Prior knowledge:
five-stranded mixed β-sheet; two-stranded antiparallel ribbon; 12 helices
Amino acid sequence: MQSLQDQDALIPRPRGALPKVCAAALAAITIAGIEFLSPERLFGWVAMVVLILTLGPLLHGLCLLAEEMLHHSKTRYQGRGLLSHMLPACGLWGKTLLAALLGGLLLYLAGHPLPREGQCWKLLFLASVLYALFKSLGVLGPSEVEVSDMCEGRKMNVAHGLAWSFYLGYLRLVLPRLEDSIAAFRSTHQASSPFWGRGSRKLIILVPLNANISHKLEEQDDNIHFYDNLPNTEIDRAGVRGRVYKHSVYRVLDEHGKGHECVVEYATPLLTLYSMSQESSAGFGEPERRQQVLLFFRTLQDILEHSLECRNRYKLILLNDEHENNPHFLSEAILRHLEQQEKEEYCLTPPPHQEMVHPLSSTSGAPPSAPPGNADWHHPEPMTREPTLMFSLDRPQPLKEPVENTELF
C-alpha cells in the first residue's frame, strides 16, 4: 500500500535559491581569476560585460514597446500612462535599467579595457543588437524550468486557479456546515452511529494522480458501497436562491468485513484537467496534466492549512496511479487514513494519574511517603477529568494586612 511518506515524496516542493547561489559562486571565482591574471583592467572588463548584458534586454524591450504602443495601448492598457504601465511591462524599468546605469558609470570611471576606444563601443553595441535579435527569434528564450518557476512563483498555473476556485466556491462554503450535517444524519441513522469515528466526521477529498475520476466509487472498488446522502445544504449563491450542495456517505469494508461510514468524494476540478488533456486545442498533454495535479494538491493543501473555516474538517488523499492492479487500493487508502486519524486524535499519552492521600494520614505520625494502613489506598486512581487551565477575569486584589490575634485560652 502507498504510505504517507510516498505521498509526500510525489508532491513537488517549491524551487529554492540554489541557482542564485551557484551563479554567485561562479561569478566570484571568475572575477578572482581575472583579478589574479590582469588586475589593472578588471573593473573595465566588468563594466563592459554589465553593459552588454543589460543593453541587450533594454533594446529588446524597445522592440516590445513598439508593438505595445501601436497595437495594444487601448485594448491591453486602456490608454493608461506610458511610464506607469507600458515601460515596466516591456522590461524598460527597474533592475535592468539601474544595472545599465551603474555599468556605464563604472566604465566611465575605470576607462576602456580594449586598446582602442572605438573597439570597445563597437563590441558593446554589436553584442547588444545581436542579443535583441536572438531574443526576438526565441534563441535566447527562457527554459521550461524558468517558465515553470515564474508561473509557480506568480501563481499563474492552471492548478492554482482551480485550487482557489475549488476552495472559494465550494469548500469554504460547505466545510463549516459539515459537522451539523453529519450530526443530523446520525440522528436519523441510529444503526450506524457507533461506527462514526472522529476521522469519519471529516470530508475525505480524493485526488488521483492521473485525474481519471469515476462518478461512482463502487465502480473502482467493490469494498466501497454507497450508503446514503447527507442532508442537503442550501446557500444563496450568485443570484440562485437556495443552491443545493450535497455530500454522499459511503460504507467502506475492511479486511474483516466491518463497515466504516465516511463522507468521501473526488476533487471535481480534476475533471477539468482531464478534459483539457483530451482536447488537442488546449495544448495540455499527459505530462503537463500530471504536473498540474501535483501542483493542485500542494496549492489546495496550503490553502486549507491556513483556512480557519476549514481547519480539522477535511482530509486530502493523493492517489498514486501505480497501484491500479490492486482492486482494493481505494478502500485500503481510505481505511489507512481513517486509522491514522484515530491514532493521532485518540492514542495520545494516557490521562495523568493523581496520588490519592488517605484522609487520616495527615493526623498520623507517619511521613507522607509512608504507605497508609488500608490496602485500598496503595494504587493511584485516575482523575475524574483532565486538568485544565482556569483564568479569572476579576481584577487582582491587594493582599490583606496581618491581623494580630492574641487571645489566651
